[in-house]
């Protein structure tokens, strides 16, 4: 018998084998046991996450001789027949090659016939988004009210291309990307059952390269087994996936942090000579910087890391580097990645980006070194206090010195403020704020962030993770940031301030300019606005004396309260 790929040999045959989709399998199992089976299902999600496998398992479960069951027995004649494809009651269609009206009409004509052996005829339509508009229209009525013995299972990787009239007739299940942890566990189980020796770190490298798809992971693992000798090693996994080892990424990041331009370029040249792709190397650097930033700001989320394992070298690197540097790395490398797509000289763009990052960081470090050390500043203050005391004891007027003394702290306080919010514009927004505008922006905020991610703007979206719209008028809205440094970086990024209003205009139909403000400045501006809010003449005394108006003011706030006779 010809050799079969691992993903075919180890295709799930029951719901328990479908990895990382418990929210789907549990719902389907409960529906099977309670005999609440729908006439149409829509399985959507990324490639290789188990959509078609779950559809076949569901087809076996509804037709199993021991039904109702939560899992198919895989022992009865019908289960075995569906598994090997010998039972005609389960029909699999590829909508990419059968996407016309004639094919759908053929289905519509045949659904009225009873199943041959099982209780249900199950139609599994893969990549259903490839159907033409006419084919969708031909399917509508049959999908809405099929015969009692027919079940439709539609699978797609692009649900946004399916008409809403089709989606509304189905029970929709969204399959999510499988975590690297779950993929690693499944591959280790398959390797143990197959008698394949492996290095655990190699499994992690393959799992991360698969980007959430189990089929991709098993294909890469199959390739690594063929490439390796007696054991799948880390080097084998790196070669097969085209990834860069974590040790090399850590070394490169260390040289960037030390502003070693020559060392950084030399390491990149050696990696490129080994056959590494400059675009893939840039992507690995971005994800490594992302994982460093995640580890520094939220150490408890290690499971969310995309490219690294938190070994000692990684933890040491995280202690040395600052978040502000990582912001610059991510932004610069992301810009370089975009430029590579429009150029035939990807290597040159990568070299220029590395040199630029080293010089930018060196300049930032030099300017920071000019700030006096805290201990020196304390010593200087103590010295001035001693001189001032001696002047007073000698009867010398100290008023000029005292007048000049507060000047230094005031100047320092101004220089320590990284970002000054536009208080005037914020107050203007508060005066004209409406509940409808802020509700509209908040309601589509998640869609806007998702749209930015789809446009490869993840580095910009990272700045908005702690941001929140807090007030909006008809033409502008106030965006509150938890950290002042995030507000400064976001508001000084022209691409971000142009992209947000454009996407919001597409989602809401209205154009809103964005005004950023750190959280502490927002609280001060809002408090001042509330205290200084003037009420219409002639109504001031009555409004203050009326307990109903006072209660309404407490509930909705003064900016949303409109007092009329």
Task: Summarize the structure in short.
By secondary structure, the protein is of the alpha/beta class. The protein is built from 29 helices and 10 strands.
Give the tags.
single chain; 565 residues; alpha/beta; Rossmann fold; Helicase, Ruva Protein, domain 3; 5 domains; five-stranded parallel β-sheet; three-stranded mixed β-sheet; 29 helices
Strand order of the largest sheet: 2-3-4-1-5
Which sheet architecture does the biggest sheet show?
5 strands, parallel
Helix content: 55-70%
User: Which architecture of the largest domain does the CATH hierarchy give at level 2?
Assistant: 3-Layer(aba) Sandwich
Structural domain count: 5
Q: What is the CA-atom radius of gyration, in angstroms?
A: 32 Å
Output the structural class. Answer: alpha/beta
Q: Count the beta strands.
A: 10
Helix tally?
Answer: 29
* Low-confidence region ranges: 362-371, 398-416, 535-545
Topology:
Layout: H1 6-9, H2 22-33, E1 40-44, H3 51-63, H4 77-84, E2 90-94, H5 101-110, E3 121-126, H6 133-144, E4 150-156, H7 164-167, E5 171-174, H8 180-194, E6 197-198, H9 200-209, H10 214-227, E7 231-232, H11 234-241, H12 246-257, H13 261-273, H14 278-297, H15 312-320, H16 323-340, H17 346-369, H18 374-393, H19 399-404, H20 407-416, H21 423-431, H22 435-443, H23 445-454, H24 458-461, E8 467-472, E9 476-481, H25 484-491, H26 494-508, E10 513-518, H27 519-532, H28 540-545, H29 547-556
Parallel strand pairs: 1-4, 1-5, 2-3, 3-4, 6-7, 9-10
Antiparallel strand pairs: 8-9
């Amino acid at each position: 018998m010809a050799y079969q790929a691992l993903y075919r040999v180890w295709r799930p045959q029951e719901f328990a084998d479908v990895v990382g989709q418990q929210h789907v399998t549990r719902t389907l199992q409960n529906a099977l046991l309670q005999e609440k089976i729908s006439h149409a299902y829509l399985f959507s999600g990324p490639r290789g996450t188990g959509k078609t496998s779950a559809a076949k398992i569901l087809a076996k479960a509804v037709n199993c001789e021991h039904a109702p069951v939560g899992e198919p027995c895989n022992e009865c004649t019908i289960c075995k027949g569906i598994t090997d494809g010998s039972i005609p009651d389960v029909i699999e269609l590829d909508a990419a090659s059968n996407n016309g009206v004639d094919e759908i009409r053929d289905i519509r004509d045949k659904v009225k016939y009873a199943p041959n052996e099982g209780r249900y005829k199950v139609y599994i339509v893969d990549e259903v988004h490839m159907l033409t508009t006419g084919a969708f229209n031909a399917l509508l009525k049959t999908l809405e009210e099929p015969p009692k013995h027919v079940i439709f299972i539609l699978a797609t990787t692009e649900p946004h291309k399916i008409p809403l009239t089709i989606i509304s007739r189905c029970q929709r299940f969204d399959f999510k990307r499988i975590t690297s942890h779950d993929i690693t566990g499944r591959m280790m189980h398959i390797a143990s059952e197959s008698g394949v020796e492996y290095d655990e770190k190699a499994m992690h490298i393959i799992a991360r390269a698969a980007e959430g798809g189990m089929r991709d992971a098993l294909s890469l693992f199959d390739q690594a087994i063929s490439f390796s000798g007696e054991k799948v090693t880390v080097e084998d996994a790196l070669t097969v996936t085209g990834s860069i080892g974590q040790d090399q990424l850590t070394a490169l990041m260390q040289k960037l942090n030390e502003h070693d331009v020559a060392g950084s370029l030399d390491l990149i040249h050696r990696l490129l000579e080994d056959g590494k792709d400059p675009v893939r190397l840039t992507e690995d650097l971005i994800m490594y910087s992302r994982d460093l930033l995640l580890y520094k700001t939220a150490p408890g989320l290690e499971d969310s890391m995309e490219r690294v394992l938190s070994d000692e070298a990684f933890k040491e690197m995280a202690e040395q580097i600052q978040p502000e540097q990582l912001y610059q790395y991510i932004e610069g490398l992301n810009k370089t990645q975009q430029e590579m797509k429009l150029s035939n000289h990807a290597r040159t763009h990568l070299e220029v980006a590395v040199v630029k990052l080293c010089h930018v960081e060196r300049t930032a470090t030099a300017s920071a070194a000019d700030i006096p050390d805290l201990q020196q500043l304390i010593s200087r203050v103590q010295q001035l206090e001693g001189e001032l005391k001696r002047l007073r004891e000698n009867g010398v007027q100290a008023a000029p010195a005292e007048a000049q003394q507060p000047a230094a702290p005031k100047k320092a306080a101004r220089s320590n403020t990284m970002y000054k919010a536009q208080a005037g514009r914020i107050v203007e927004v508060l005066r004209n704020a409406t509940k409808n505008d802020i509700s509209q922006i908040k309601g589509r905020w998640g869609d806007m962030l998702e749209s930015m991610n789809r446009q490869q703007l993840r580095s910009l979206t990272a700045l908005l993770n702690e941001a929140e719209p807090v007030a909006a008028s008809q033409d502008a809205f106030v965006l509150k940031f938890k950290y002042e440094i995030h507000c400064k970086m976001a508001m000084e990024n022209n691409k971000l301030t142009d992209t947000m209003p454009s996407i919001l205009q597409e989602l809401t139909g209205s154009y809103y300019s964005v005004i950023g403000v750190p959280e502490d400045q927002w609280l001060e501006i809002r408090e001042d606005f509330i205290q200084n809010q003037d009420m219409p003449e002639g109504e001031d005394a009555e409004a203050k004396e009326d307990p109903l108006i006072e209660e309404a003011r407490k509930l909705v706030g003064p900016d949303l309260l409109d007092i009329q006779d």
